[in-house]
Design goal:
This protein has 380 residues and is of the alpha/beta class. The chain has two domains: 2-145 and 316-375, Rossmann fold (3-Layer(aba) Sandwich); 148-313, Rossmann fold, CATH 3.40.50.2000. The protein contains 16 helices and twelve strands. A six-stranded parallel β-sheet has the order 2-1-3-4-5-6, with helices on both faces. Strand 5 (117-120), helix 6 and strand 6 (139-141) form a beta-alpha-beta unit. Helix 4 packs parallel to helix 5 (102-114).
Length: 380
């Protein structure tokens, strides 16, 4: 059996963590995986979309095709899965035109209604698919996962002074860190000697904070994370950010680090205050969190708990069966898809708790009742 994944690039972070990470599980289930970048140019694109008929299943990742191309793919794909880990129906937080996009929303609605299954990286994205007209029984929440075996665990530290904070990300998401410049400079004044390890391709400067510049490399990122004492997450409080699936938080936790992050989107689900880190909004909150994590015993305890929760709730091993079943159609309901509900513009603003095990979504009232305190999930 053969699965074709149409992606940005086989080396793109989304493909690595949401598709290729499950390749061993696919092989165990008797499937081969081919990851192809979506072809550029009209003739190559047509040829590629028609080639879908040679595969037993096709996974389209994140791309919102023009209506006629989507129709062509749908015609040739025996089983079509649509995977997303971003609010692709919106523009990003920093677009001067704002996040709302009628064109993207329209393409998104057509895509989720045409797919046999939608694999959403969090419940905000799953709810957006439902609002856009995807049949509820064909929507799965399968979080972005990491393989803990690829991350060395932070060794117990007894170093005094403020914790060395660490942030990993791209130059575009670094804007979230830079937007809180007054926060960082206050922390630098209150905690002399504070260090911020930045793993990126661009590096900020903050008065009073020593920024340790570490150029990002896939080969060294896990090792560099483990040199920090606590991870940091800062994203804008908007719907684009609610579509984020918290990869950097999971990487910190895989390295055995507690995390300080603002309470937006997946951060709320992934971090339990006082147990695996802290959710901080105001400058006072951030200062209190850094002060608490200056205690090496406390941060070692939280880091160990964060790693344990990641292993049970966000590891590739925990979600392999759900991914394979959804991507290949093994869990598809019998018979033809029901008529899609009328599309509604996705503009959801409430955090959700995922359905354990990637099971089909029930109605919204059921999922509200299943949600834990402050949106913290129960795990698969």
């Amino acid at each position: 059996m053969r699965l074709l994944a149409l992606v940005d690039s086989p080396d793109h972070v989304c493909c690595r963590y949401r598709v290729r990470a499950f390749e061993p599980a696919l092989h165990d289930a008797g499937w081969s995986l081919a990851c192809e970048p979506l072809a550029r140019g009209l003739v190559p694109r047509l040829r590629q979309l028609r080639s879908a008929s040679r595969y037993d299943a096709v996974l389209l990742q994140r791309k919102l095709l023009p209506a006629w191309q989507l129709s062509l793919l749908r015609r040739h794909a025996r089983h079509l899965a649509f995977d997303l880990d971003d609010a692709v129906f919106l523009r990003d937080s920093y677009d001067p035109r704002g996040t709302a996009s009628r064109r993207r929303a329209g393409r998104f609605a057509r895509t989720v209604r045409a797919a046999d299954v939608v694999l959403a990286g969090n419940d905000f994205l799953a709810d957006a698919a439902l609002r856009a007209g995807a049949p509820p029984e064909r929507v799965r929440t399968i979080p972005t996962c990491v393989d803990p075996a690829g991350y060395p665990v932070k060794e117990a530290s007894r170093r005094g002074g403020p914790p060395e904070l660490v942030w990993i990300g791209s130059s575009s998401t670094l804007q979230g860190i830079e937007a809180r410049r007054p926060t960082w400079e206050r922390l630098g004044r209150e905690f002399p000697g504070l260090r911020l390890r930045v793993i990126c391709d661009r590096f900020p400067r903050f008065e009073g904070v020593e920024v340790v510049a570490v150029p990002w490399s896939e080969a060294t990122e896990a090792e560099e994370l483990a040199k920090g004492d606590a991870g940091v997450g800062l994203i804008p409080d908007d719907d684009w950010s609610r579509g984020k699936c918290g990869l950097k938080i999971l990487q910190y936790q895989a390295a055995g680090l507690p995390v300080i992050a603002n309470p937006v989107g997946s951060h709320v689900e992934m971090i339990e205050p006082g147990a695996t880190g802290f959710l901080a909004t105001s400058d006072d909150d951030w200062a209190a969190a850094v002060r608490a994590l200056a205690d090496p015993v406390a941060r070692d305890r939280m880091g160990r708990e964060a790693r344990l929760r990641l292993e049970s709730g966000y590891s590739t091993a925990a979600w392999s069966a759900a991914f394979v079943a959804a991507a290949t159609g093994a869990d598809a309901p019998p018979g033809p898809a029901p008529p899609p509900a009328p599309a509604r513009a996705p503009n959801f603003t409430r955090e959700r708790t995922r359905t354990p095990g990637g099971l089909p979504h029930g109605d919204r009232a059921d999922r509200r009742a299943a949600a834990g305190p402050r949106g913290i999930g129960t795990g698969p």
